[in-house]
Write a structure and sequence with these properties.
This protein is of the alpha/beta class. It is about 30% helix and about 30% strand. It folds into two domains: about 1-60 and about 95-165 and about 270-345, FAD/NAD(P)-binding domain (3-Layer(bba) Sandwich); about 65-90 and about 165-270 and about 355-380, D-Amino Acid Oxidase, Chain A, domain 2, CATH 3.30.9. The strands form three sheets. Strands 3-5-4-12-13-14-11-15-18 form a nine-stranded mixed beta sheet, with helices on both faces. Strands 6-2-1-10-17-16 form a six-stranded mixed beta sheet. It holds the Pfam family FAD_binding_3.
């Protein structure tokens, strides 16, 4: 089995292939240390427990679990924060680099080629798949495209598919908790909850993640994702998030973002896409290669891990590799479509057509969550029927 891409999705499906008894080769284009990437992600606690029990993740990998979501906004005419709602919402925040490192360690049975980008993939006359690099080519019975939103592998299955852009962008960053030590109230709240701050035309998400990089297991970074419509066409300056915070956030939160010393800061437009099929023998798509959802669903790493678990089970229990891939497609294709639609719905409700956050209270937030989900499910809204 060949795996195109060696980040989270690639390492996860490599673990799946090894556990199912396949010989696995991973091609990762970057020759840098992926473990040094330190942005925040969250996964559902049950999925974290499942992947630890299944041997994908090390139980010793640091996480920063919290069980509550708190909704804040800036009090009208003031700079202080007003809490508008508090809801049960268990999540397990992780450091991207630590999650990758744990998956990479669990994929030790696979051959992992770092700094070896794939230049093309194609079908062979005999029904296999050819992977070509600058160093040569190899043929496999199964090739997994885990090569992200610009996937070469996906072009074989859906050559005309293009991403659909949203009208807004997301700014993401991390800051050392120590750099915000004087802001005691926000940090006290973040040790027990993850926080949503609503403002006109967008919202921000804040949570703590393990620091990594040799720091102790209790060392934390403050991670955020802030959504808003930029003043011009994306891309916009990374530093614009400081202006957003100054204009719209409660004072203590604004000071954290606008004047804090970041360890990472990025900005990118929001897009989505969904492949019409997650697999077509001999090709499989996993993670963002199969579909990109708007980040409101917090499903990037989640979907990659779930894809890997599904692939392992299909390979173990199917009569042939082709049958396994067809089963994988039946299970994962509709889930990808559901997440894309959910992301669009959340984007409309929170950025494109947001409520007047200053007029919201516990009851209206509860009703807003139910109306926004409209019968579908999201682990970020755990108690919503």
């Amino acid at each position: 089995m060949g795996v195109v891409g060696g980040s989270i999705a690639g390492c996860a499906v490599a673990v799946a292939g090894v556990r199912a008894g396949a010989e696995v080769t991973v091609y990762e284009r970057s020759d840098g240390e992926l473990r040094d990437r330190g942005l925040g992600i969250v996964i559902p606690p049950p999925l974290h427990e499942q992947t630890v029990a299944a041997g994908y993740l090390d139980a010793a990998m640091p996480t920063a679990p919290v069980a509550t979501r708190v909704w804040l906004t800036r009090a009208p005419g003031e700079r202080s924060a007003r809490e508008i709602a508090r809801r049960p919402s268990p999540v397990t925040p992780c450091n991207w680099g630590l999650l990758w490192q744990s998956l990479r360690a669990s994929a030790t049975g696979a051959r992992y080629h770092r700094g070896r980008p794939v230049t093309s993939v194609e079908r062979t006359p005999a029904g296999g798949a050819l992977v070509r690099t600058a160093d040569g080519e190899e043929t496999y019975g199964i090739v997994v495209g885990a090569d992200g939103h610009g996937s070469l592998t996906r072009r074989v299955l859906a050559p005309d598919l293009r991403p659909s852009p949203a009208t807004y962008a997301v700014w993401r960053g991390t800051l050392p908790v120590s750099a915000s030590a004087e802001h005691r109230r926000p940090l006290r709240l973040l040790r027990e909850a993850w926080v949503t701050i609503g403002f006109p035309g967008g919202h921000g998400i804040f949570y703590l993640i393990p620091r990594g990089g040799g720091a102790g297991p209790d060392a934390r970074l403050l991670a955020y994702a802030i959504y808003a419509t930029p003043p011009g066409r994306p891309p916009v300056e990374v530093g614009y998030v400081r202006q957003l915070a100054d204009e719209h956030f409660p004072q203590e939160w604004a000071e954290i973002v606008a004047r804090g010393e970041h360890t990472a800061m990025t900005c990118h437009p929001v897009t989505d896409l969904h492949a019409p099929s997650a697999a077509e023998p001999p090709f499989v798509l996993a993670g963002d290669a199969a579909g990109v959802t708007r980040p409101h669903t917090a499903s990037g790493a989640v979907k990659a891990l779930q894809d890997a678990l599904c692939l392992e089970e299909a390979l173990r229990t199917s009569a042939s590799p082709a049958d396994a891939l067809r089963r994988y497609a039946r299970e994962r294709t509709p889930e990808g479509a559901r997440l894309v639609e959910l992301g669009r719905r959340l984007g409309r409700a929170q950025v494109e057509q947001p409520p007047d956050w200053t007029a919201m209270d516990q009851g209206s937030v509860d009703a807003w969550c139910r109306a926004t989900l409209a019968g579908t499910s999201s682990y970020l809204y755990a108690d919503t029927d």
